[in-house]
Each structure stands twice: as structure tokens, then as C-alpha cells.
User: Fold Endonuclease/exonuclease/phosphatase domain-containing protein from Helobdella robusta.
Amino acid sequence: MVDVAALQEIRWKGEGTGFVGAKGGRYKLWWKGNDGTGGVGVMVREELVEKVLEVRRRSNGVIVVMMVFGKVIVRVISGYATQQSRKKEEKDRFYDDVSDEIGQAGLDEFVVLLGDLNGHGGADADGYEGVHGDVDMVYGMRKGVECWS
Assistant:
């Protein structure tokens, strides 16, 4: 059974919280969207909901769920990267939000980044076959100009 899942392109407007699934397989879902396109969410198995410390809905593309297991804090980031065709400001916001969340993590925290980071595939993936199948994981993210270290 899956304990935590990150969702992208949920296509729901606004933000909210609710339970999904049937008895014995229920999850609490936190989500944020804007206009019925894109959007992100995180689902946590019902038995683990008490472990959730905080939920931050940073944007239509980034939601963070902080959980505690004993003395360990786990920062789960669900990200939906802005597509290459969008405005630079939108792309910068996504990267800034994710980078900020990673940067805030303490040395005693685990950071789990899950999501659709909009890697690039197809005819323009020439030369990157060994990176991730036929997927260009750098060029599709900012045309290779910027990447996380």
C-alpha cells in the first residue's frame, strides 16, 4: 500500500482538503490549483495523517507536506514544473519555491521531491539517450542554462 503520493495536473480550482478512497484504503488529500489547469496535491494514507505537522500551499505548482516520524522530519514536496513555453517569471517562481523549500530544510530533515519536472523528450533529446532513456532531463528544464546542484 502506498503511504504518500504526489499528484500533478489535478485540474481542480482553488485549494482544499478532503478524504478520498474507500474504507481500508482512504487517503487525506491536500491540493492547490487555480483555473482548472495544472495544480498539485499530496495524498497521505489515513493511518499516517496524525504524522502531518504542516501543509504549505506555495503555488499552483508547489505544495509541501511536513511529517514527523519519531525524531525525523520528512519534507514532501509535490512539484509541477512550468512548461518551457511559459513566461520566464512563471518558471522562476517554480524554481524559487522549490529551492526555498529545500534550503529551509534542517540537517536533521529528509527532503523528498516528487513531481512532474517537465523533462524533455522526443526528437530534441539527441545526445541524451544515456541520461534517462530517450529523455533530456536538462535541456527540457531551462534549455540547459540553469539546473539545481
